[in-house]
Amino acid sequence: MTLQQLKYIIKIVECGSISKAARELFITQPSLSTAVKELENTLGFEIFLRTSKGIELTVDGSEFLSYARQIIEQTELMEQRYLNKKPAKPLCSVSTQHYAFAVNAFVELLSDLAVDEYEFTLRETRTYEIIEDVRNLRSEIGILYFSDFNRKVLEKILKENHLIFNPLFQAEPHVFISSHHPLADKKAVELEDLQDYPFLSFEQGEYNSFYFSEEILNTFYHKKNIRVSDRATLFNLLIGLNGFTISSGVLNSDLSEEQIISVPLLTDEKMLVGWITNEKSLLSATAIKYIKKLKQVIEDYGYTVY
């Protein structure tokens, strides 16, 4: 077992596929596949499962990756100390539901980094894929929410996949609407007030489920429904069609359209927003800094963090 083999495994997980990792490592895919197979033969277990959708870590592979990352990090620290090598560029990967505060915290993190190079990934993606990313260690952190409706189902899925939910803050649901919306002057709205307007939600792909929905109170009937895949499209439709969506109420004006406002939704429901991690992996120093920035951003909006 060599340090190079450990680096290969880490790169494959970061890329999500052997072919992409081979391109970034500037070696051929057969050579990389052979190196992985030789390592698996040495260890006596499979690191990756090969499926029609690509590769994913086995249970043993997840544990091995955690040790591999620690070894590589410690090796780099020794090289910096004794060989005067340049520090490795910080790495961090986060998967999140479509939250402006998650992006805001990312901006704050990068702005404070006093380094010449870094390699970060921020995925605004579907709920199921957030869970898959953290399960397979493609992301160190995933950001999603619990409600009374989805909590038991999501907790069961997280437990089955050895993932841990860490509460961040509790939010009361708000609707995002255009500042020119007919309801924009109201101090609060009810769902009945919104029935004549298009309801915008983030589509969840083949794993579409009420339990995976990013929008709380998603089981209520809406006469007009539009599903989108990204936040920019959603904001444009909010403005152009007098649509609405339901979220946490944390809306960053620096990173979103100024024409969008947040109005409290009258309901007893609450959103417990938090971050998930893989219990088999230790967070990097950069990931820990990101969580700290998340908490600072949330506190700046007046919320109490856990």
Distance between the termini: 42 Å
Radius of gyration: 21 Å
Question: What shape does the CA trace take?
Answer: elongated
Largest sheet at a glance?
Answer: 5 strands, mixed
**Total beta strands:** 12
Q: Estimate what percentage of residues fall within beta strands.
A: 15-25%
Oligomer: single chain
| Largest sheet, spatial ordering of strands | 4-3-5-12-6
Low-confidence stretches: none
Percent in helix: 25-40%
Q: Mean pLDDT score, rounded?
A: 89
Count of alpha and pi helical runs:
9
What does this molecule look like?
- This protein is α/β, with parallel strands linked by helices and 306 residues long.
- Helices cover 39% and strands 21% of the residues.
- The protein has nine helices and twelve strands.
- A five-stranded mixed beta sheet has the order 4-3-5-12-6, sandwiched between helices.
- Strand 3 (91-96), helix 5 and strand 4 form a beta-alpha-beta unit.
- The protein starts with a helix and ends in a 6-residue tail after the last helix.
Keywords summarizing the entry:
9 helices, three-stranded antiparallel sheet, single chain, alpha/beta
Write the layout of secondary structure elements.
Blueprint (H helix, E strand, L loop, with lengths): L2 H13 L2 H8 L3 H15 L4 E4 L2 E4 L1 H24 L8 E6 L3 H13 L6 E6 L2 H9 L5 E6 L4 H10 L2 E9 L2 E5 L20 E4 L22 E4 L2 H11 L3 E3 L12 E5 L6 E8 L6 H16 L6
Parallel strand pairs: 3-4, 3-5, 8-9
Antiparallel strand pairs: 1-2, 5-12, 6-12, 7-10, 7-11
Helix pairs in contact: 1-2, 1-4, 2-3, 5-9
Give the structure's gist in a few sentences.
This protein is of the alpha/beta class and 306 residues long. Helix content is 39%, strand content 21%. The chain has nine helices and twelve strands.
